[in-house]
């Protein structure tokens, strides 16, 4: 029996993000295009048959263990078990900035669902894992399914997509942005006309607009300045509700040369856009 498993927990980008309405419960209806990056966190799950329970090897800065999406996902999955389960210790190699719009927490939750489903041999289907994931956050299902996708609703209605697998410069301005704060701003655009999703939109940079960008630029001058700098080299966009921004380039060398010229003090990384999640690539190797 396998007792330890290390899995990637990749980042996502929202290549575009349109807010097309608001539901009676206040949640915003979106149309967005998700692509994964070949860059992210890594989680290691180690079964502890002599020690029952679910625990983190180390707590995450600023997140109580009970609130951590990894622990919450593991507990929800354990509730589906029909018999006793061995305990597990989960170690996190955290590379993705929190509150960055890269979906790190949601991705960690999806990697936990997939990893423990395998290690605990629960055999839940992808649909069941996506359903559990949606209760943890709107972005979790796309990470569970592992295919780049157009998303509608609050992000749970997914249509697989194949945007170009270009290279990205991702910059992290020096601020953390709370998603709820952006969605509660009065000046937010909430009435972008719905588009009919078509494959022709996948690589069409003119559609790569993010409706949160104007309010985020006003509230966070750091984001405004980073967008101004990166847009010298081509269109630069916000991912999710920020704070991270990205520029898209056809080659790794183009992306790296711009990355190397960035002003001092800006953090971030260069990564490739991928339409099949690195998590799923690894899971396929296991079966
Ligand atoms: C905006 C997106 C785009 O990918 O990503 P991030 O920037 O967080 O990565 C997501 O839809 C984020 O979805 P999710 O991860 O579930 O959002 P949460 O942080 O739980 O939402 C915090 C709060 O924002 C508001 N909210 C969130 C999503 C949404 N579609 N409409 C909303 O009005 C709600 O008030 C909610 O309580
Ligand atoms: N495992 C986790 N990794 C990151 N953030 C987490 C995790 N568990 C809970 N959170 C909470 O979720 C918030 C959003 O985190 P994250 O998913 O990284 O950013 P975003 O939603 O902007 O892409 C964090 O500020 C943190 O409070």
From TrEMBL:
It is an enzyme of class 2 (transferase). Pathway: Isoprenoid biosynthesis; isopentenyl diphosphate biosynthesis via DXP pathway; isopentenyl diphosphate from 1-deoxy-D-xylulose 5-phosphate: step 3/6. The active site is at residues 12, 139. It catalyses: 4-CDP-2-C-methyl-D-erythritol + ATP = 4-CDP-2-C-methyl-D-erythritol 2-phosphate + ADP + H(+). ATP binds at residues 97-107. Gene3D superfamilies: 3.30.230.10, GHMP kinase, C-terminal domain. One of its GO terms (molecular function) is ATP binding. Residues 68-146 form the GHMP kinase N-terminal domain. GO terms for biological process: isopentenyl diphosphate biosynthetic process, methylerythritol 4-phosphate pathway; terpenoid biosynthetic process. InterPro entries: GHMP_kinase_C_dom, GHMP_kinase_C_sf, GHMP_kinase_N_dom, IspE, Ribosomal_Su5_D2-typ_SF, Ribsml_uS5_D2-typ_fold_subgr. PANTHER family: 4-DIPHOSPHOCYTIDYL-2-C-METHYL-D-ERYTHRITOL KINASE, CHLOROPLASTIC. Catalyzes the phosphorylation of the position 2 hydroxy group of 4-diphosphocytidyl-2C-methyl-D-erythritol. This is 4-diphosphocytidyl-2-C-methyl-D-erythritol kinase. It comes from Marinobacter persicus.
